[in-house]
Amino acid sequence: MPPVFAHGALRLYLLALLESGPKHGYELIKELRDRFHGTYSPSAGTVYPRLGKLEGNGLVAIESAGRRVTYRITAAGLSELEKHKEDLVAVEDGIAASIRRLDAELLLQQFHDRLRADLRLHGRLGPISPLALETLRSVLDNAMTAIDHALTS
Fold it and tell me: How far apart are the C-alpha atoms of 47 and 27, rounded to whole Å?
């Protein structure tokens, strides 16, 4: 599977999430998961090292309260975000495209699972008739044509 974020894009996206206010690392992970409708959830091993680099570059400041660390964007981080506004728009567009593709794949998987279950159920009642098979072939061919048309328009 290709990486979800291009080089440097997660760094920029984390800054964008922090623009709305300070957050804990877990909150950032949860927001990323929510933005991807649950289809992508970065690990702590992905997010925390990037937050550390952002802090090291002065783009994020941390406040510790016991074991909990809160991250907030700095003036330099806001400036960096402003400099890369167009890149952020491209990241958002990429996320939206990924979500649409994953939604389409989920629809296809649900259709496949339901059709397979229906075929098994009806198979217990007896063999599929030649007419039923021809109808199934025709309906699926028409559906594929309609899907191809939808994807290319």
Answer: 11
Q: How many CB atoms lie within 10 A of CB 115?
A: 12
Catalogue the E-assigned strands of 7-46: 23-24
Helix (H, G, I), strand (E, B) or coil at 64: strand
Ordered per-residue pLDDT tens for the chain, 153 residues = 456 666 678 889 899 999 999 999 999 999 988 887 777 788 899 899 999 999 999 999 999 888 889 999 999 999 999 999 898 888 888 878 877 888 888 899 999 999 999 989 888 888 889 999 999 999 999 999 999 999 898
Contacts of 25-30 spanning 24+ positions with Cβ under 8 A: 25/51, 25/69, 25/71, 28/71
How many alpha carbons fall within 13 Å on the CB side of residue 76? 8
Bridge partner residues of 71 (DSSP): 23, 62
pTM as predicted: 0.67
Report d(CA 78, CA 80) in Å as an integer: 5
Structure tokens at 79: 């400036």
